Amino acid sequence: MNSEKMIEALDQRVKRRGERREFFKMAGGAAVMVGGVSLLAACGGSGNPSVTPTPTPTPTPTSATVPDQDILNFALNLEYLEAQFYSFAAFGVGLDASLTGGIGGTGAVTGGRKVTFTDPVVAAYALEIAQDEINHVRFLRSVIGTATVGQPALDIGSTATGAFSSAARAAGLITGAGSTFDPYANDENFLLGAFIFEDVGVSAYKGAASLISNKTFTEAAAGILAAEAYHAGLIRTVLYRKGVATPALINATESISTARDSLDGATDLDQGIRAIGNASNIVPTDANGLAFGRTTGQVLNIVYLSRTAVSAGGFFPSGLNGTIRTSAAN
């Protein structure tokens, strides 16, 4: 590729990243089956690459008075969710009881089981990420100390009314009230389940960065942010690689991304793994090449699966433990 063509390709990539995607039309797409899951084959969302959009800045959290420990406890709630999901998927068991107690008590975990991986690469990645997430829980609990909140009730199951199925239904990956999405059924489902979480975790830590005043706490959050970004990039890379042969997987990430964006307000804070044509979009960034950040309310919109201001739902059926509990009103 000569330099002119390379520059043109990069320009097109920038246009794609800055583009405000139209919402997918959930009905009317041709369905295909991937790993036993109905995925929409006609969920595009690439928009018009010839239009140069006005860059949408990542929102800045409005509150700067939230105590640092409250911010870290908010993060710990999210780490409980990720750690339990990955621990069950990789090891077949959840967190040890010594890592779940604290203020607010310990909530029950609904669902979760070991994935029978067929791709040894995906299995190895699952083991590594699971151990990282368990270590995040352990580390945050040690940093927060006596103010640590306990694990809230979590829904990581695969029933028709469970959080994963509800999220997949909202994204159009499955249809019908009785349909289910099982993230433990196979490698591809596991990757899509992980995709639902990972980008949200990165944006949560990015959004919280300006709220933390204590240098020690800031360094702790920055370290976890970096690890979560590695995880998210890895999940996106593997999905894209598999999606070259099975395009429905790439389409599924676009649908999930759009569904998340429909929950957290009018600002475009999400991207799938497809750029212009067949180009990849492994790193979701704004027009300045910066990772997206979400407020705590926006993060809760996604994990509660609600556009409105609520204090429980989705993956947290009884809400979070701690002072930060309410999603934004969108």
Description:
The chain is mainly alpha-helical. The chain has a single domain, classed as Ferritin, core subunit, four-helix bundle (Ferritin, Up-down Bundle). The N terminus is likely disordered. It is 46% helix and 4% strand.
The side-by-side strand order for the widest beta sheet comes to 1-2
Sheet/helix structural class: mainly alpha
Shape: globular
CATH classification class? Mainly Alpha
Helix content: 40-55%
Protein name: Ferritin-like domain-containing protein
InterPro entries: Ferritin-like_SF, Pigment-catalase-like
Pfam families: Ferritin_2
What is this entry, summarized?
This protein has 330 residues and is mainly alpha-helical.
Write the layout of secondary structure elements.
Blueprint: H1 3-18, E1 31-34, E2 37-40, H2 68-91, E3 109-110, H3 120-144, E4 154-155, H4 163-170, H5 187-208, H6 215-245, H7 247-263, H8 296-303
Helix pairs in contact: 2-3, 2-5, 3-6, 5-6, 5-7, 5-8, 6-7
Protein name: Ferritin-like domain-containing protein
Organism: Sphingomonas prati
InterPro entries: Ferritin-like_SF, Pigment-catalase-like
What labels would you give this structure?
disordered N terminus; Ferritin; two-stranded parallel ribbon; single chain; 4 strands; two-stranded antiparallel sheet; mainly alpha; 330 residues; 4% strand
